[in-house]
């Protein structure tokens, strides 16, 4: 399980590195990961201190730190 989370985290990190801030919905759509995979990977990256989160109104964007 942790190996698949690590792979998903790498995919998300690469996506954000190439494309800049994005919502979790956009990340899910573009990477073709499931919502659960995205949530787990975002949690992994957040615990490692690699992500920033910004909320404007109802929208939250995720970016690399």
UniProtKB/TrEMBL annotation:
Domain of life: Bacteria
Listed Pfam families: DUF2582
Stored InterPro entries: DUF2582, WH-like_DNA-bd_sf
Name of this protein: Winged helix-turn-helix domain-containing protein
Source organism (scientific name): Methyloprofundus sedimenti
């Amino acid at each position: 399980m942790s190996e698949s989370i690590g792979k998903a985290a790498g995919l998300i990190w690469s996506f954000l590195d190439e494309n800049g801030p994005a919502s979790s919905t956009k990340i899910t759509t573009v990477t073709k990961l499931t919502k659960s995979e995205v949530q787990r990977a975002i949690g992994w990256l957040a615990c490692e201190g690699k992500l920033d989160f910004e909320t404007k109104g109802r929208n939250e964007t995720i970016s690399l730190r």
